[in-house]
Amino acid sequence: MSEKTIYESETKRSRRSIASYLRRLATALGRGEPVPVDDEQTVTVTPAAEPELEVEIEQDGETLSLDIEMEWEGDIEDVDTETNVSKARFELYEDSEGKWRWRLVHRNGNIIADGSQGYASTQKAKQGLDSVVGNAPGAYVVDTSKDDHENTVEDGGSSATFELFADKGGKWRWRLVHDNGNIIADGGHGYASKQKAKQGLRSVKQNVRGAPVETE
Question: Boundaries of each DUF1508 domain copy (predicted)?
């Protein structure tokens, strides 16, 4: 049977962005879930329990390539090109003062993120949430309660950083801060522990891509 390409993409990325993509694949593989192969999480593949893994480094003139390939016996039913791995949805809504806002709502009904400000139009609010979609998955997490930060922002990849901090009431919170200093998202509420706050922001990292946008 001749080979058939079901899905293919090729983009130039920073090492940081590639690492974020591979972590997403690794998380799904470790859980035995369908693996989202595109950034929008709309194309997934379900590998066999023990596929063959081939790793190869090649040189072609002055070009080096690292190829990682998984292979198993399967059929087209292992691939879904019209899925939605995200477990959340964006809601665009108008507040009592006539400002437009967005919030990210998990399928369990919990609001896991919202914008830190109101916008003059739905278009501006959509631009705000698009910035979160583009930056949250690859953003580093900096614990502001520690003096020594292990993670530093590199060129390329995300243009924002998650800041983890304790508020005046002793609750743990997170905010997503753009390189320009603007807070583009936060958790909307405090958590009883740092671990719970980390779980909350990880859920945002995993679910912003592919989340549908609904206007109320």
Answer: 95-143, 167-214
Is residue 40 predicted with pLDDT exceeding 90?
A: no
* C-beta of residue 34 within 8 angstroms of C-beta of residue 83: yes
Convert the pLDDT of each residue in 134-160 to its tens digit: 899 888 888 887 754 444 443 335 889
Pairing relationship of beta strands 111-114 and 140-143 according to DSSP bridges: unpaired
Asked if 16 contacts 28 with a C-beta cutoff of 8 angstroms, the reply is: no
67 near 10, Cβ under 8 Å?
A: no
When pLDDT is averaged across residues 168-183 and rounded to a whole number, the result is 93
What's the rounded mean pLDDT across residues 9-17?
A: 81
- Residue with token string 């905010």: 175
CA distance between the termini of the chain: 50
Please, what are the domains in the chain?
A: 15-80 (no CATH), 88-215 (2.30.29.80)
Of 47, 103, 35, the closest CA to residue 75 belongs to 47
